[in-house]
Amino acid sequence: MKPQFKPTLLATLIAGGFLLSACQPAAEKPKEPQTAAVSAPTAEEATAFVKKASDEMATLLLEVNRADWIASNFITEDTEALSAAAGQKMTETVVRLANEAARFNQTTVDADTRRQLDKLKLALTLAAPQDKAKTAELAELVAKLNAMYGKGKYCKTEGQCMDLGEMSSVMASSRDYNEQLEMWKGWHDTAAPMRPLYQRQVELANEGARELGYADTGAMWRSKYDMDANAFATELDKQWSAVKPLYEALHCHVRAKLSEKYGADKVPLDKPIPAHLLGNMWAQGWGNIYDLVAPENSDPGYDVTKLLADKGYDELKMVKGAEGFFTSLGFAPLPDTFWNRSLFVKPRDRDVVCHASAWDLDSKDDLRIKMCIQKTGEEFAVIHHELGHNFYQRAYKNQPVFYQDSANDGFHEAIGDTIALSVTPKYLQQIGLLEQVPDESKDIGLLMKMALEKVAFLPFGLLVDQWRWQVFSGQVTPEQYNQAWWQLREKYQGVAAPVARTENDFDAGAKYHVPGNTPYTRYFLAHILQFQFHKALCEIAKDNGPIHRCSIYNSKEAGTALNSMLEMGASQPWQNALQKITGKPEMDSSAILDYFAPLKTYLDEQNKGRTCGW
Length: 614
Ligand code: X8Z
Ligand code: ZN
Description:
By secondary structure, this protein is mainly alpha-helical. Among the domains are: 4-152 and 190-225, no CATH class; 227-296 and 446-519 and 584-614, no CATH class. The chain contains 24 helices and six strands. The chain has helices at 9-16, 43-73, 77-101, 111-121, 132-151, 164-173, 177-189, 195-211, 217-222, 229-262, 290-293, 304-310, 315-328, 336-341, 377-395, 409-421, 425-430, 443-473, 481-493, 521-540, 556-566, 574-582, 590-595, 597-606; strands spanning 153-157, 160-163, 273-274, 357-360, 367-370, 495-496. The longest helix is centred in the middle third of the chain and has 34 residues, at 229-262. The two termini are 44 Å apart. L-captopril is lined by residues 4-5, 284, 356-357, 382, 385, 413, 523.
């Protein structure tokens, strides 16, 4: 059902999907919602309630998804209003049902009914207070922020404007310090007007979360992981500590290379890297500056963007190519409606939310993606990412409504990426894109390119919600929004704003998921999990070579194993889903560390004599 990470309220709902955790945390255990039980209801009544609530949700979801699809594809005042109205209805319904569900808190019910009741209570990403006017206000803010992001433009002069896609292309290819800075500042400045709206949204959503018994919205978000909410935060710290040395080694090397390129006055060797020089608007993926850091004598000598161009791949062919990977594993092809209803190319004549998303309109077969595809290797990976969502959605469609979601939200984000890890030179040759597979002497180059995407992303994946959690809890006040954002970017990523920023700016709002209200920890989880999945599937596919050269293409065994996890949806704790495919119920960063081990050795060698850190 719902689009993965998408904007509006339900989106909100969606974004998180319908999930929630099986066991409520001890430390942040929600208080009973405010509607008190009137009588002691029976287990039969609880089962009947779950059935009724599921039917109501299924009907509403279709309505909300349609409103949101149109609002994101045709940004106008009218579609924004329709999306807000649908979001309001959904929020009111879920809040009402969640409160009704509290009647069964003391009822002894079977584990499955309990899990579905729990899922219902945590279904919203942003809860609203039980007050019609406030719920309407929140829904309007949600729809408006989404539209503002989608319409964002930087105008050099009147009539000479650039959208995010155009600016991102310049960021990717420019090696001119000032030109990159102009793009960076131009885009970040578009977010400033969002600030008062965001602030109000935080107030309203917190009020809603409190009525549901959570300390604040962040506490509610952390409660969705089948474990104690505080234990979840600790688990994140543990995973980050394990991968941090790898990130720091990459940072050190990249900073040295950027300093060579731009000069030590611009990129000092003991300070954070200016955030506009890494080839990406948010410095979250650095693959576009590969040429500046490519290891000598070990460059694989090909570039997927160029291969796609050479073989005449257009947007449609890129999506067909990605679908082909999934069908090679035994998944059925996507339905005709996918091809007729998806958006692949940015329309020339209207504003759309271009941030890539995957949708399941009806929880049956109406799967779609919405993407303004650019014909690059980077976007080829994003297409795999999006289709991962769609194939997951289809795999769990026969689950009860409250289980129509991934095991946890990190799983949803990890599936397509897992497949994209199999887009190796060998695979590119198999599908006729690459003539010759580079020999093993080029592995460091391949690993470097991959690390610039996957390893560079890790701290960003963590910090976005560290900021939001602090904002929701009140630890960061509105007067500190921007300074807190930059403190975290510096602390985790070791990047700094390239020009002075003030509290008139709202730089967090320049990242889609903040105005889009999509929790972001999921991407950090996904970046750890995808390597675990890849390793496990490679073993199942009996690809015994080095893990970074493994491709599960054509392996029906790997496809069957993957599907057995996907079709579980959210019906069991994520630990069980993880066990199903990897044999172990724990998140384990050793898979990503093993994958990049040869690169780590190379980086440590390169960094000898350098002062790392910031
Ligand atoms: O938002 C996305 C996907 C859609 S769920 C394109 N991603 C994050 C981002 O772009 O910031 C994928 C990786 C991180
Ligand atoms: Zn995604």
